Amino acid sequence: MSVKTHIWICALCCTLMLACSGKPSHDEVQGWYEQGKALRAEGEPQEAMELFLKAAHSGTDDEILLGRVYSNMANICRQANEHALAGYVYALSAEHFAAAKDDLAYAYALNNVAWEHAARAHKDSALLLVAEALRIYPLFPLTDKVVETHAAACLFALEYDSVLYYTMPPANDYLMMLRAQAYSYLHVGDSATYYAQILLPRIDNPFYLDDIYYILTHDDPSADAETIRQLSSERADVQKAIEQRHGKLMLAVQLLAQNLYPAPTGWRHLAEVILILLVCLAVVVFGIITIFERRKLYDERTEHDTTRRKELNQSLHLLRESADLKQELAWNDYSAFHHQADKLFHGLATTLEQQGLNEQDIRICVLVLIGLPHRQIAAILPCSQKSIGKLKDLTARKLGVSGGQLREKLTSLVCE
User: Fold this and answer.
1) pLDDT digits (tens, 9 = 90+) for 354-398
2) How many domains does the chain have?
3) Residues 148, 8 share a domain
4) Average pLDDT along the chain
5) Half-sphere exposure for 209 (CA within 13 Å, toward CB)
6) 305 with 380, same domain?
7) Which of the listed residues 262, 290, 310 is the one where a domain comes to its end?
8) Which has the higher per-residue pLDDT, 11 or 359?
9) Domain coverage including residue 236
């Protein structure tokens, strides 16, 4: 069953639950939102997401509340580094704020969408969204947020000099963090560690702490071995906390991805059900056709393989019965041998060359494929019988098989 089908099944369940329980009051929806915010602040994003989804699917007509609900869900996605999904959900919050005619909230939401574009290194689209946000609300406090987005877009686009321009002077801790990172990437260790040391006692966000510890560990020219050891230990603890937090966040993100869309109602619901049935029917038909096509292709390949093996066995039989095997393959002249081996064995010599085998390896392979014993192989090459086993194993190893599997491997290469 497809992900889309799962989504609509979840949506149908939500519809049936709401139909049975009745439409919740505005106070109930507001309560779910406030409880979700509290749980999110306490580090329980999954439980918070459940309440936010409940509020989003409640059917409330409070556009401001819905905008805040979607904004909080997007914040969880941002913390999980799921920037594409976060941008989509921030855009939903922007739609609700626009419907409510709340210009400041709408502009903030657009700026959040811009930041998610910046995080995916889509600088041009991020700056277009920022410009639109400023057009809607060109005043403080949005202007400060716009500067942060500009600086972040430059950082993710690897334009570190521009980051320094937008963060001079750093008006808040986030801009100071971006400035420290820019100096670190530009290998200006003194400046990077200067800002990192200022931020260290003021920041409790584990993601930012990890960046600060990295800068202090790698860029501080004055740090002694003991200081670096201590910072590395502290950073390991922070990284462990990040991993634990990320696991919780991803559970919340998965829950959102499965239940994002509100449940359709009335004729729209019936149309969606019919559409799903048609899609399922199309998938079944496509699956049946694919099975038949794969079966036909399998039969064709089997027939092709059988024909090739018959041709190969005939060639091998003729060579084994040949009065002068050396003459048949011109063993003393490698170019003639190579041409004849390709002709008889469907390009085997060229295939082996492409896999890195040398002239001696290819001669060994052809003799093994013909099925000659070590005594005859030693007489043709010429070399001692004791050397043949070693040469055979070395050649087989180059093809990723053992000496005992070499002949079957060569047969499969000829019959491909």
Assistant:
1) 989 998 899 889 888 888 888 888 888 878 888 888 888 899 999
2) 3
3) yes
4) 86
5) 18
6) no
7) 262
8) 359
9) 3-158+224-262
Place of tokens 């100096």: 183
- Rounded CA separation 44/377 (Å): 72
What is the C-alpha to C-alpha distance for residues 193 and 155, in angstroms, rounded to an integer? 18
- Cis ω before 262 (30° cut-off from 0): no
Helix (H) or strand (E) segment spanning residue 331: none
Average pLDDT over residues 325-353: 85
Q: State whether 22 and 103 are in the same domain.
A: yes
Please tell me whether residue 345 adopts helix, strand or coil conformation. Answer: coil
CATH of the domain at 12: 1.25.40.10
pLDDT value of position 269: 54
Task: Answer for the pair 178, 209: CB distance below 8 angstroms, yes or no.
Answer: no
The pTM of the whole model exceeds 0.70: no
What mean pLDDT is predicted for residues 227-234?
88
Residues 327-345: what's their mean pLDDT? 85
**Predicted confidence band of residue 261 (pLDDT cuts 50, 70, 90):** low
Position 207 in a domain: no
Residues 313 and 358 in one domain: no
Whether residue 147 is found in the same domain as residue 239: yes
* Calpha distance 129→122 (Å, rounded): 11
Is residue 59 domain-shared with residue 48, that is, in the same domain?
Answer: yes
253 and 277 within one domain: no
Question: Is the confidence at residue 6, as pLDDT, over 70?
Answer: no
Per-residue pLDDT of 315-334, as tens digits, reads: 787 787 777 887 778 888 88
Task: Collect all residues with Cβ–Cβ distance below 8 Å to 410 and sequence separation of at least 6.
Answer: 348, 365, 368, 369
Residue 3: predicted pLDDT: 40
Residue 13 in tokens = 């369940």
Q: Which of 37, 103, 121, 43 is nearest to 79 (CA)?
A: 43
CA 351 to chain centroid, in Å, comes to 34
**DSSP per-residue string spanning 163-221:** HHHHTSS--SHHHHHHHHHHHHHTT-HHHHHHHHHHHTTT---HHHHHHHHHHHHHH-T
SS (H, E, C) 386-405: HHHHHHHHHHHHHCCCCHHH
